[in-house]
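Exercise 7.
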Amino acid sequence: MDQFIGRKEELKKLNTLYHTDGFQMTIITGRRRIGKSTLITEFIKDKKAIYYMATKVGAERNVELLANEVLNVLVPNMQGVHFTDLEVLLSFVGKNVPDEKLIFIIDELPYWAEKDESILSVFQKFIDNDWGTKNILLILCGSALSFMEERVLSEKSPLFGRRTSQIKLEAFSYLEAAEFVPNYSNEDKAICYGVTGGVAKYLSLIDPEKSIHDNIIELFFEKTGYLYDESKNLLVQEFSDITLVNNIIEQVANGENVLNVIADKVHEKESTILYSLNKLISVGLVEKRKCITEEKNKKKTQYVLKDQMFRFWYSYLPAASSAIELGKGSIYYERVVKPNLHTFMGKVFEEMCLYYTLSAGLDEKLNCFVTEVGTWWGTEVLQNEEGKKYTQSADVDVVGVSAIEKSMIVGECKFKNEKIDKSVYETLVRRSKVIPCKYPIVQYLLFSLSGYTEWVEQNVDARVVRLLTLDDLYS
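Solution. The predicted structure, written as tokens, is:
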């Protein structure tokens, strides 16, 4: 798909910087495939811009390649002149800045800076002594999140205090992702969002003229599919020990979310696992999730896959690899994966409902001004028919908190081909009472793919219980 979708706020911010006189500098970060380069390409249309994507070829070669772009934009008749020193090249740029704003972009900066630590100090020197008085918009961009945060954005960076703004690109929301497949049903839009994780590159590969199932087969379950080896390709770029990281992700994808359990399953020390988990967090694949209302309880911390495409891949592709290699991936998908898509979508639907709750709460469409959302998990004490008490695990899918109004909203999500019944509603009410929070619950939200039973529709109090469907999330 060639149409540019989304990123309206980011484009607005970049255009504001572009139309501001004098030197401006912004840092753009975001995990691989998230759409940083696409955003930049859209932004610089019809503008004078020097765009260079750094590579792992060493400092001198990067200077030579950047020089070609500089000459091509500023003085095309000087093609063939060689620069091997970055300072000389940046000085040349400063002396040849045109009357209009010049955009100067280094994409994938870490590829260059990891082998040449001086590059950041060189840019600092020119910002302070030369470019600071010029009509230049400097954009530095990188996918290695830990590098960008520690070496470019932190107080220890030579560039600290010199940026005008920074932009961190995240995956598209389920609403933005739907723009890639406008003619799909809402259920298929949700599945499309789930298997791509809202990642721009993956969404751009979806052919809206084909069914979601045909797209999944072509992208994942064929040897030539772009996403067949995508998870491995991404890990190879970021990690030296692929086997360990692969084992860790597989455990997290299968629901093992606690450090000591992951370490036990992988047969490694907790410190080793923690190091890899932190690296996975830094590249945007894993997130460390805290139990809402109990953020200070360190025991209530879970590691979950932030990238839903990775969760889909690890849920189905390893077991399907033999069938795919034999050219029978489509059969495997139809027999094994397709019947279980709703199970996979359960977690995705929860994320969608959390997004909806926060957005609707901030828009004052709920019974309280929700400013924070999350999930709660813990235990509840029940009593059997003989009167004996027992403990079981419990969770609440959606918890929305308003610290301003000192109130709370709770919700349950079901992405199933069956209607939500009385038992689901009563379980939500019962479990919500276990959440350790002093704020009163002012509303219950039920989210259902397939609607509600007659009992629920006729007996719940509409003043405090809202019955929502997938269509409501997309309206």
